[in-house]
Amino acid sequence: MIGVCGLFVLIAHIVVSTYIPREVCTTYSVPGDVNIGGLFSLHGDGDVSEMEGCRGRYPVSALQLTEAMAFAVMTINQDDSVLPNVTLGFIIHDDCSWPEYSIWCSLSLVLGAQPSLEDDFCNIPGPNIGTTERMAVGIIGTAKTSSSEVVINTVELFERPLVSYGATDQELHGEHGHPYFFSTIPSDSHKAEAIVDILAHYNWEYTAVVYSSDHDIMHLLHDILDLANSHSMCMDVQVMLSEVPTVDELRVMVEVLQEHRHAKVILLLVSSAAAANAVMSAVSTAEPPLERTWVASDSWGTQLVRDRRSQGGVFIEYSKPKLTEFEEYFRSLLTGLNTTQNPWFNEFCSGSDICQESSEEGFSGEIATLAPTIDAVLSVAYALDQTISDLCNNSISNCIFQKGFDDNLFRNLQKVSFPGTRGQFEFEGNFVPAQVSVKNMQRQEGGGFELVEIGSWSSVLMDGERLTIDERLVQWVEGNSDIPQSVCRDVCPVGYVEEIDSTKRCCWKCRACRVDDIVVGTECVSCEQNEWPNSNYTVCDKLHAKTVTWDEPAVISLIFLSSLGLLLCVLATIGMIKHRRHPLIKASSRELSCVNLLGLFLSFVTVYPLLCPPSATSCGMGTILYVSSFTLIFASLLLKVNRIYRIFESSTKTVRPPRYTGPIAQLVIVALLVMIQPLLILITALVKPGSWTSIRNLFPIPPRNQPRTLEIFCDLDIGFLVAMSYNFALLGACCFFAYKARNVPGNFNEARFYVASVYTTLVPILAAMPMYFTADNAISLAISICLVLIINGYVTVGCVYLPKLYIATFKKVTEQENNHQSLSVQSRRTFVLSGDSNRVHPSTS
Fold first, then answer.
1. Long-range pairs for 589-593 at CB < 8 Å and ≥24 separation?
2. Architecture of domain 553-834
3. What are the tens digits of pLDDT across the range 673-687?
4. Which of 59, 333, 574, 651 is paired with 325 by a 20 to 30 Å CA distance?
């Protein structure tokens, strides 16, 4: 093995040419029957290139870590239950916080070499190697992942375990990691899970990240980003700082955070309290002020400046138990009650009260790596105890470095279990399970600020149960009780939905829905035609149906015209009864005139139910009266004009009057024509129920961006159309016979009036049809339908009855007119053929 080691050292000397300061040669050692090594960083603020690599001194906590290892070894040696009859020793090196120095220090430990000082240079591992008294069976360290990565590459060649108290990168023992690496502090993966669980707990979807370029922080950030993506969180706003941030870096950081105003929560990942305080100071002086909630993930939370800048911040810390026995031990060194061989003790503690101030009761609870250091020593000791028991028969003189010892020690270290400083200790995948305290920076009653524990996170629990937070204990920025919102989206007003902003990654913008849409989640959903969104655009409400009202000017006009038409019908009826003996009235077929007047009366009455609020009763009554009035009017007119045409047509051929022109025959015929209509109404009502009582929904086109309105009116369904088709057939027949009767002598003015009535009726009907089918409001429908009735009624009254009543009332009847009925048919024929209009009377009887 020595030959291999010598070759390795020779290659290392040739390949690696680096300056090793003399401070690295200093070791803290207490030899024993079996030794373990330790790599700690007590110095290292300088620049290696400037030969200042070990001139800067770390805080007292670095010294306390070395004494924690010494204390743990001393505790093992005093416990007969662990390594009985075996003295455990240790050799501690200062790696000056540089990976290059850690390599040489680890080589010195595994090779059993004593570093030698040559002038101002440290010669590691030194000229004498292979001294078993100085060989370390395992190494405790280092504090950083970057250093542990290079050290494990060295020590695993010798199959020695490296038990770190501060390295947290899961990749050191991942699928392609190093099996000989162990860590007594939870991995970054647990820390990342705890952070993401907290962000998810408060629905912080859009988070800014301020991080330092430290190797360990970069690995932690990578783990956090992977988990955040799986939880649909966005951490697109990232600001990287140096381990010691410059003024320019801090200024750029503030500008970036101000630009991304939606990132109300900032994840702070830096490696030191000095860097964190520099960030907080820069943010506190920003204009305009940056009121943000900070989430931090490192042990320096206890060293953070505690003021309103960090108020409301959420800090996660690994379990840091109070180590009372070690505190007493360390204070005994300061008071001289106990002695130490620690070569750095006087450097840190002489001539200054800093060690006394840093060793007040409870200081162990502020150092995150103190308990892991002691547990690391204990884990190696318990594994050694089991290995010696298995291989050495309680005698270690010849078996420590025999073949198979290192491999057996490795296996025992994997399954070691003992009462540690943080409870029962055992490795879980070469790391330890994570017990995390969740703390909140809060203002105290006295005005100060303290970290208050508000919950915990445990890696051993199931998902959904790992994080517990007592919301009653949480205090946010400025003491606000409302949870901060950290999402890149504006609060959308009612009627708007969120959609991805194509100009900003991870952000959402508001898009207006259509005026007739409601908002369902992130979608615009259209309301039905008879619905309209409520004021909050959350529910489609049914539209309140409106119809024509009798206070509208157009309706008032229709009612007035209809009432006047009824009055004219009444007057015409009275006049017809009063002058029923008048030759002109008798000649116009009084029986058919009664039917015709009944139709006119119904046509004017029909206007009233049509203008009432639509219902099955009003619509059924209105539409049935509508078609019936037309049937009565057109059936009687048809017989009248047909009778005139037939009489004058037959008079040119014979003196005998045409058949079926008498009063009884005319009434029978008109009754048959009228009875067809009720039959059609009954058939259509049976074939399609409701065709006479249906109501039509109308949706007037509203002004731009105004609510839709619903209006209702009686629907002219298939039954109405069938019935009106029959009326159109009667009307067509009237037009035909009116055309045929166009040559009736001028004195027969009744035929002319019938022709005018029939033709004039066609005009409003043809005008009303397109208006009805294109109308989108109730008033247009009312006007188009009712005016047809009114106009037809007025034309018929004006053309057929008023002239007769005028003649019967205001003109005297001549003797010739009184005796016109005595004229023979032959005389009528002669007069008609001769065209003597002065002697021909309009009577057709």
1. 589/639, 589/640, 589/643, 589/663, 589/666, 590/663, 591/663, 591/666, 591/667, 592/636, 592/639, 592/640, 592/666, 592/667, 592/670, 593/636, 593/800, 593/801
2. Up-down Bundle (1.20)
3. 999 999 999 999 999
4. 59
